[in-house]
Amino acid sequence: MRILVHDSVTPVFDPDLLVDYLRSEGLDATTDRPPAACDGCVAFDHDDALLDAPWVHAITAGYDNYPAERYREAGVAFTNSTGIHGTSVGESVAGHCLTFARRLHRYRDRQHDRRWERDPYDAAFTLDGERACVVGLGTLGRGVAARLDALGMTIVGVRQTPAGVVGVEEVFTPDALHEAVTDARFVVLTVPLTEATTGLVDAEVLAAMREDAYLVNVARGEVVDQDALVAALEEGTVAGAALDALDPEPLPEDSPLWGFPEVLVTPHCAAMTNDYHEAVGDLVVANARRLDREESPVNRVV
């Protein structure tokens, strides 16, 4: 099968890594073929030229920046990379929580100034026994929940249906979001960006959180009302935030979020790991073989 790895202005990884991996799995992969001449295209982001391809695969789980309806109208099969990020994102969130609890960010900041200075005695805490609310219990959320549970935290979650999840003590539906976040030391966002989740964490949700609570966003920036978050941080009604997803991206230099000592800003990299291209490649190979057999691909969006 002929596969185009469609290059990008800011690719997540070197496209040639994926080309080489797909070739090692027996696919005719390249970066130098027009989409219309391919059996499938792997996309780092949307390009209208991809509408000429029979099949497009997004390297990300989120596809809010892809015009899914236009793919449908053009007769293009569109698949995404959901299901491969639970470990990396889960570990990133655990790292953020541990950083805040053990005050590692403050010591790193002081290291730049060569300052040997401890935080106040009552600033540090342990995650063991603390409560985390994971908003969204798909692959990402379950990956987060499993790792925070292993650190001794009590996990509650929010999802559309109240069905139980391993390692999650209680599951709330979205209409009970305020109740779900009330007692949590960490509120972790792992939901996809949809009409329903845009602005989900607003001033009211932030007000429902504990004053010593931290918001962790590894979803999409638009899920959080950033003006309301800045206000909550300035007023001290939440303790801090770890923000891997922001609106817009890159975060402008004049954003006040850069300046809060209890805010960690990372450049949308929570899912990144050195074998990411292989995980994407495995999905592409599996779907190429399914399409060869005239079977429906996995992770089909449209």
UniProtKB/TrEMBL annotation:
Keywords: NAD, Oxidoreductase. Its EC number is 1.1.1.-. Residues 95-270 form the D-isomer specific 2-hydroxyacid dehydrogenase NAD-binding domain. Pfam families: 2-Hacid_dh_C. The keyword NAD applies. InterPro entries: D-isomer_DH_CS, D-isomer_DH_NAD-bd, Dhydh_Halo, NAD(P)-bd_dom_sf. This is D-2-hydroxyacid dehydrogenase. NCBIfam families: Dhydh_Halo (NF041369). The keyword Nucleotide-binding does not apply. It comes from the Archaea. One of its GO terms (molecular function) is oxidoreductase activity. It is an enzyme of class 1 (oxidoreductase). It comes from Halomarina salina.
